[in-house]
Specification:
With 492 residues, the chain is of the alpha/beta class. It contains 15 helices and 22 strands.
Length: 492
Amino acid sequence: MNMNTTIVIGAGPAGLTAAYELQKLGSKSVILEADHQVGGISKTVNFKGNRFDIGGHRFFSKVPYINQVWDEILEEDFLVCERLSRILYKEHFFDYPLKPLNALAGLGVQESIHVIFSYVAVKFSSQRKRRDTNFEEWVISRFGYKLYEIFFKTYTEKVWGIPCSSISSDWASQRIKNFSLKEAIINAFSNTGKNKNGEVITTIIEQFKYPRLGPGMMWEHCQRALAKQNNPTLMGERVTTINHRNNKVLDVVCRNEAGEETTYSGEHFISSMPLREMILALRPLPPNNVVEAARKLHYRDYLTVVLTVNREEVFPDNWIYIHTPKVKLGRIQNYKNWSREMVSNPKNTTLGLEYFLWEKDEEWEWADDRLIEMGIRECTEIGLIRPDEVVEGTVVRVKKAYPVYDLNYTTYLKTIESYLEGFENLQTVGRNGLHRYNNQDHSMLTGIYAARNILGANHHIWSVNTEKDYHEEGKLEQTPSGGRLVPIPKFN
């Protein structure tokens, strides 16, 4: 293998985008993917002609260059979707974002008054003391305790499997961002989708792009474009060992499903594999404090039960949040409402019932038939379908889908980041590579930065998506290879 080649570990959005950017800059890469399908958690699975996602993936970014890359790769295969998502609570659907009349009808006058008084009480007390050290405190300070209890607590604890008081406030500040009860009410009446500073509230974007055959279509196109320029993606190659010496990675060892090992050498290395596993794969192992920090990083696993329902329309939403405590079900995707081409038979609807688990949970080991039965039962219990409407089902499990933001995760990351900064030719990117719950566009941006760093830039990848909010400036930067001018987003 050409020693000038960059070895990219992982064919998700971050890894493939890094390889794509390297290709644009005239540099070669080889992508190593443990799965047999590209896209990571942005892949699209095809089951008997019905396509479904691992969660829903909106294509919306405030970074102009990310939108440019999407359009370059997918060209004419984008759809423009109208967002509709609601919350199911106490057998009533609540519009999201908030619409006062809808909320009043669902909660009733008495509970609505309780919500307002709870919010006012918190705002007065927060003027004296406001800590925001965990998710629970952060949300209560902006929405009041009652609204937190109704619309945040149950669902969040389903997703993460730990109390809201044990989740870092970073999760709220990065995901909910510039949104509050006050902003929700103002937006409900003004319908601008912007806060008082004129910034788009990304939590409530009402329109987005979507590939007509699901997000995996984007990354399959990207893989083919790379292959045409001799930048191959090698499937079924799981990295087990990363050999290094004198602050440089020398090579990586992969094992395929047959147990055969192959060694890949290169000049530069970009990794999007889970940070914990990457640290533990290094040989020699890092110092004890780094190894211990890595071992304390946790990941939430994901399982989706996909049901094909013999009904043309089940509900109008793209997805629904299930806040009902009596079921384990956390969220339901309606793939047909993302793109009609996701369903092979137009008389049917395909639903994705999302469960958030730990790999150690008993449900993780259940047979598919038992999980499908649970999905049908819970979907029936909340009143969405009848059991006799289900034509068939399947199950997809994804390990380490979500990096967990516990109260101490930033301490562990600082230790790991400090150690990795000593490497001359190793960069980590993406959601799992940085242990950060990045959106797809953030993950892509880390890949772009890594590629440009190899060509001589000096982007600090770990700073992406660490701010409470971010903005971009229309700066142009000349690529070190003398390539064309491209817009570079600048983060504070």
